[in-house]
Amino acid sequence: MSEPERIRKQQVAASLREPVREAAALAEKLGLDPYPVNYWIIDYDEMNELIAYDGFQERYPHWRWGMKYDQQRKQRQFLGGKAFEIVNNDDPAHAFLQESNTTADQKAVITHVEAHSDFFKHNQWFGLFSDTPDAARMLASHARIVESYMNDPDIDREEVEAFIDHVLCLEDCIDQHDPFTPVATGGDEPFEAEDIAERLDQLGLSDEVKRQVFSDEWLESQRGTSDEARFPAEPELDVIAFLRNHGKRYDRDAGKAVDFEDWQLEVLDVLRREAYYFAPQRMTKVMNEGWAAYWESMMMAEEGFADENEFVDYADHQSMVLGSPGFNPYKLGKELWEYIENTTNRREVAEKLLRVRGITWRNFSDRVDLDAVLAALEPDPAIAHVDSDSLDALDPDDPRVDAEALAAARAGEVDVGRYPWKVLTYEGLCERHYSLVKRQHRGFLKRLSQTDLERIARYMFDDDRYGSVEEALADVDRRRGWDRMREIRESHNDVTFLDEFLTQEFVEENHYFTYEYTHTTRDYRATSTDVEDVKKKLMLRFTNFGKPTVVVEDGNYNNRNELLLGHQYNGVMLDVKQAQQVLERVFELWGRPVNLKTIVKELDDHDVEVARRRDREPIPEERGKLIRFDGEEFATRDLPWDEVEHLAATDVDYDTKPEEWLA
């Protein structure tokens, strides 16, 4: 790094010390509890390098990083995309800020990062898979291991790269429902015919004795019956671990499968460990980005962390992030978190009002003036508008007020004009930012239907607690929304998050719909605004990271030590050419023929034409297929339905088949 460059970065870092300190303090006031964050100032090219390396400064040598770097650079150059920051999941977390960002951008990034770090620390899926105390050190150690093999004169560097390629095609084939554990070698693996022959040779018996004592029928019987020889006993989701335990490499000179070299086993362990480390980031993309976008907006816009000279720049920044075309996890996530906050707060208010003497779900709309309710829920003016002139109106004994900070502010030690939140507690900030009375959400309470009220009342007890509406509203807990959001942040991933909280009300309010290619019109059309259809469509994107779910069904298929993989079909067919390419890779990790069971959709041209004339969609026929690769050529054959029926989806599990809308 040149001296001018170093000085420039130091100047940027110095200007950000106060925003970093105050953002961490504000995050804590808002109820967040992030890992400590170390911030680093980097230039444009360094940002591209870090993005290529998934947020870390050192990764194992491989061509994929150069490819990702080139993609990122060209995206900025030709498509106008901009990376404002990157943050990694570690304790402490490390965030990298681009020095060319405006001050508004830097502040937005810092508040965004504090929320990400809170999510990393508390989401249980990160704890399940990312249990390493120092991820940067782990990945650097992996880099040195792989590099040592590439530099070993006894190992062909190209062979190491090719082996990594074989494993990476399976990096999504891990078990997302179990915590990471090192591979336990061993297990009951059936004898191979070649193994039995080698053992007989070691006995030193003549061919005549072998033929008399060990007949071909006996040798065949040692393979065991189909049921006895089947392993694993249940389909194995962690394909990489299975291949690590039971796989071999094909020795072309010897013409047979032989054990992995030690370096291959270690590379398998390294790549599997990294697949598990990065899994939660892909499993929680919508939740995590939405969480960060929500709290960034809260801090920057609603708490004025962007000052008046920066606000327009920040608005442009936010619109760029939330308004990007295509599927946008920031936008969907933020809208869902806001919806959860609003529905939680709305239920709290409804429960309180339904406990007022004389008010029931049947007469609610006649007895309750919701405009008056919203007016009563407005924050106390002394809490809503804090400045140096209003400090005397605050009571240090009020639980909404931070007595120590209030004393410091009255002594002139706190700039409440710039940081009014400093004199408030979590309770005070909950009231100050109560969602139901915000302008953009004021209609939310009024959307309470009779059905909603009946459902709430059905599970209520002691429903005669308050003598008046005013008394009930005074007892409303304004912390409920944020408290509930933190509970959900801890336990969900994207699949469960969308499954539980995506509702018809949300779909209609935020204008979500599905679209499909229709054979009738030969183009894409909006097909449904039903929540179940929207939900299923989204599930296809998030189940198994949006990739096909493939499991090990049998490591001794047909008693021939062939590998049988099963594609858990969810209504979307595999790309057969890509599947064949993957089988070629898997063969290199199994050393013997590999097979893949799947389900395909077949449409007859005549049926398509008839359906088009009748202005309806043709219904494809689903058939079972087996693709086999023996190391040299592929063979594909039809399978009876009863052999693939277990792979077909049900309507309840999102690993399974959607209904006809996906046809």
From TrEMBL:
Q: Where is the SpoVR-like C-terminal domain?
A: 548-599
Record-annotated SpoVR protein-like N-terminal domain positions: 15-349, 480-545
Per its record, how is this protein called by name?
SpoVR family protein
